[in-house]
Amino acid sequence: MNNVPQIKIGLVTVSRDCFPASLSESRREALAKAYASKYDASELYVCPTIIESEIDMMKALEDVKEAGCNALCVFLGNFGPEIPETMLAKQFGGPSMYVAAAEESQQDLLDGRGDALCGLLSASYNLNMRGVKAYIPERPVGTAEELADRINEFVPIAKALVALKDLKLISFGPRPYDFLTCNAPIKQIFDLGVEVEENSEMDLYDSYLKHADDPRIGDVVADMAAELGAGNLIPDILPKLAQYELTLRDWAEQHKGARKYVVLTTKCWPAFQSEFGFVPCYVNSRIAGSGIPVGCEVDIYGAISEYIGQVISGDAVTILDINNSIPRDMYEESIKGKYDYKQSDTIMCFHCGNTCSSRLQTRTMCNQRIMSRNLPLTVTKGTMEGDLVPGDVTLYRLQGTAEGGISAYIAEGEVLPVATRSYGGTGVFAFPEMGRFYRHVLLEKHFPHHGAVAFGHHGKAIYEVFKLLGVPVSEIGFNQPAGMRYPGENPF
Is domain 9-164 classified as CATH 3.40.50.10940? Predict the structure, then answer.
């Protein structure tokens, strides 16, 4: 995907003047060697300067910037000088992590002792004094091999933070009247460093009309037909869909401005179908599959959430309604005794057809069933239906609150290999203690019905990104295990 940044982490080690710098140097080399033996060595630049003073800090800062680093790992090979080592993160301005070396042997606790626990406490205190939100992993003190793993875990976190600072969100149309649930203040989006470009539906329609004779339409139609295969049940609508896809892709490229990355969110009803003559679901799925998430129903926080998950997972994501309960007979027949879930742990997540084809078991181009109830079939063509591919998923969302704050949630679970017997892009999902999570996080914290879905378990990295973006820990909900009471849960 070319809509995400590449990360290069500057590994900078530090040494307090009363400790031997050679201790930090040897530990730095061991850490770099351990990383290169397990991961992509090009992601890590080893800064030759050991920071012992403010002058060293300025030299190291210049060095990592010249090397093209967009993230930092400050490594306390020994206690470290708390002032220059934290000034570095402040002046660098990008994502920074702090880790420290564990002691190697009981045979070397005289001149070979680095005092990492003490040094990291001082660093943390100074980072707070400077207002720097640095990433400190759950286990920040470790051997070279252990810290190599910690740095690798930081890569997707840093990637998401870098991406958001260079992201433009492009929206079309005001949020639908009946979907006030997707409406939220956008100042918090700007606070994240994301640029927002809001356009009218007329802007989009005018651009669509100008693409009517685009010579690329034929190639896109052929690509769509190949993707759909036997599911291409409405081939006559493909030229219009191809025209619309080219419209969105060109708009995204031409309107990035000074930003490198882009996400979209569009209005798809109630006037869209009658004016454009189709529904945009399948096109949205294709664009999302290529690396540009498209939020439905002008859901700006949904689109931002999708993008965070895409950057972290390195894969396409989707946005789905947290939609309906699983019927008792479906649970009894297909889930109970086969999977370790209560019925209250299971839900069905659905959307009209915006999930990319790689995440669907089957692909069928058809009419959008809900819209067809009120509109002629001729203008509701263009959605893609199919059950989602079974496997691990992460359901999550970043959301601006009505009070001007920001909140979030994360739940890890899976799509079960159970036929939905329904329509749209949909799946049978299971999350441990979903019933309680639904009541005491989703309802109690006033989240909308849209949830972003990343494929795989990525809760750990998403949680850290939310924290570093400034979401209060108390405002990050998760599906708490049985026996862990939610604050508002009735104890009786």
Answer: yes
